[in-house]
Amino acid sequence: MKQVGGMGSKEMRTATPAAPTSSERHSDFLPKDGLRIGHLGTYPPRKCGIATYTQDVVSAVHAHLPAAPPIVSAMTAPGEDIRYGWPVQHTIPQDDPDAYVQVARALNRSGVQLVSIQHEHGIFGGEHGAMLSRFIEELTVPTVATLHTVLPEPPETMARAIRDLAARSEAIVVLNSKAIPLLEKAYGISTDNVHVIPHGTPDVDPARRPKVREQFGVQGQTVLSTFGLLSPGKGLEHAIAAVAKVADKYPNLHYYILGQTHPGVVRHSGESYREGLLQQAADAGIADRVHFVNHYMTLDELCDWLLATDLYVTPYLNPHQIVSGTLAYAVAAGKPVLSTPYMHAQELLASGRGVLTPFNNPEAMADNLDAMLSDRAQLAEMGRRAWAFGRDTIWSSVARQYGAVFARVLPAAKEAKEASGITTARVVRDSVSRDLPGTERRHTGLL
Questions:
Q1: CATH code (residue 227)
Q2: Torsion, CA 322, CA 177, CA 446, CA 62, rounded to 10
Q3: Are 194 and 272 in the same domain?
Q4: Other residues' Cβ atoms within 10 Å of the Cβ of residue 356
Q5: Residue 38, SS3 per DSSP
Q6: Per the structure, how many domains does the chain have?
Q7: Which residue in 14, 90, 212, 422 could disulfide with 304, CB within 3.0 to 4.6 Å?
Q8: Residue 267 phi/psi, 5° resolution?
């Protein structure tokens, strides 16, 4: 059974209907001496996807906007001993309720005009991150929260926590348009102030491909790759099984699994998942065709591996996964993709940018892999479509879209504050949902 990713585009809300002009980028909502933004989330050197995303948002937004130096507040997990450098100025132990209040007060004194929050379940304390409310309640400036997980059937305690976050924030950002109806139906949240901004991606240079292929010693190979922190939910065993089924037909096919095992998995079960994958490849007689690059990759190294790749695969097992940064990176690098049909893949691989293959079905995955490799012209066309699509997701574009959201939030917050004569963020939040214009809708291929 083959599922080709030609689903067509969806209507979606976007943060901005077109790339703004220079004058629009420097509009009156920005203070003349630079907008000062506080950021809350995990942050490198902590090894997790949200940390990388937060760092990328900080770098991109502050490169795009006339901005004062950012202030980052980093969430820390129990037992962590991480030394942070600039721009991290505060840390919040996730289970320390007083720390949320103290850091919020410090941000109020710092002169920040807005706080951008990267939200993921598990990085904030309390039931489904309920302690985050203490932080927002104490702030006297507006907040914009980016949701990295939106489920179709959340537990009520989770839905309640997200409703509370939405009520306390001036704007919500989601990374996939499919989150809009989920927030409305499953969470009971009005989405008037919800904005879709795609997962940001690096801007790679395709001209470097011959050089990096030589550097990695993969000349003459057909390179299949997957990257990210390894965990059982990645479904890599199915990709290895698919490679084994087509290995004889494609003697130059090699599969590269890029990245270390997720630290949380290592703490609980060591390297048993990786070891099982190694044994699987050996048992299938393809130990020399499946390669593990077992370390946490720098962005430059990751981009080089994507340039060296011929076909990218995400065999993930969770159908409700609404965001995949690894998939976004691969598409923006112009790579044709073979993927299971989780929510982000359904949208990102539409219009012929890749092929969807059923969950938990290595036989179908092998058939799809064979079909893709046997039609090089179609494979190249998928790559061209992916590259064109990805131009709207590179970080410079994403930063403009965040800037457009901030541009809507700040004037409304200022007007509400001046009208009331009260400087607390609570009053601002009560009025902003009425004062902000609705997010425009347009037909695009984004996400």
A1: 3.40.50.2000
A2: -80
A3: no
A4: 22
A5: strand
A6: 2
A7: 212
A8: -60, -35
Amino acid type, 308: A
Which residue type, as a one-letter code, is found at position 266?
V
Residues 298 and 176 in one domain: no
User: What range defines the domain where residue 33 resides?
Assistant: 9-200+394-437
CA angle 372, 373, 378 (to 5 degrees): 55
The pLDDT of residue 367 is 98
| Residues 240 and 195 placed together within one structural domain of the fold | no
* Domain match, 39 and 133 both: yes
For the chain (length 447 residues), average pLDDT per consecutive 10?
31 34 41 79 92 94 83 94 94 97 97 96 92 95 96 94 95 95 96 95 95 96 95 95 98 96 86 94 97 89 96 96 94 98 95 96 98 97 96 93 91 58 40 30 23
- Beta carbons within 10 angstroms of residue 207's beta carbon: 8
Q: Give the model's pLDDT for residue 48.
A: 86
SS3 389: helix
How far is residue 129's CA from residue 159's CA, in Å, rounded to a whole number?
A: 11
Whether this prediction's pTM lies above 0.85 is answered by no
The helix (run of H) or strand (run of E) holding residue 74 is strand 71-76
Can you give the pLDDT at residue 418? 52
Distance separating alpha carbons of residues 58 and 298, to the nearest angstrom: 17
CA 281/CA 311 separation, integer angstroms: 19
- Rounded to whole angstroms, the Cα distance separating 142 from 145 reads 10
* Amino acid (one-letter) located at 376: R
How far apart (Å, rounded) are the C-alpha atoms in residues 208 and 199?
24
Q: Are residues 143 and 13 in the same domain?
A: yes
Q: Are 348 and 214 within one domain? A: yes
CA neighbor of 136 nearest in space, from 159, 113, 117, 111:
117
